[in-house]
User: What shape does this take?
Amino acid sequence: MIDSHCHLDHSPLYEKLDEIVNRAEISGVRCLLTICTSLKSFEMIKRIILKYKNIYGSVGIHPHETKDHINVDKNMLISLRNENNKVIALGETGLDFYYQNSDKFIQKKKFVEHIEAAIELDLPIIVHSRNAEIDTFNILKDFSSKNPKILMHCFTGSSDFSEKMLSLGAYISLSGIITFNKSKELQKTAFSVPIDRLLIETDSPYLAPIPKRGSANEPSFIKYTAIKLAEIKQISYEDLIVYTSNNFNKLFSLSQ
Ligand SMILES: [Zn+2]
Assistant: This one.
């Protein structure tokens, strides 16, 4: 299995990283992508990817953090990425109009900087979108002639939104939210997403899946999301893992 989105630099994962990485390996997770949220986060991510062979990282500013990173532009993102070849994605970026921790205008501006950097580097962008489906789609659509590689992380949107994103060539990553009882609509959407566009993630330490709900999430818990998604897609657990891992490797141009 591959956990396409976790935050290993966030507490309480960072404090017991050896233990967490070991448990992930034992439960069959062979690759992790730890996602950057701020400049401070990037410093920790560089340390993590240097230490562990099967962990890759990203560079980017979470929409919540954009107000404190006004100076981070396309060129800075490109030069930060070029500090380390195990940085294989830009993000997480995108729009969050639910919390609006940062002004909408700033979020949009920074989203565009990330997209431009990703296109120039030919790397995928990890997109966070909450209460912002129309703007997320419209901004990405403006770049469609340049074929950006798009990964919609922790997808919880409408089926209409998933179809629009798929039309732009995006991959859709599902988290433990699909295991929740209230996620009937999302489960229906997951059923309709083509199997060759699906990825799985934990978004740990957040959003622990059932039956671990309430505890800090960690990459080893990805199996619960995989079990649920296999059930939704009506395929075997083994096939689900082969598909989602192949999709990850294809999107990130990895041969593992
Ligand atoms: Zn995240």
The chain has nine helices and eight strands. The mean pLDDT is 97. Residues 5, 7, 35, 92, 203 surround zinc ion (CB under 6 Å).
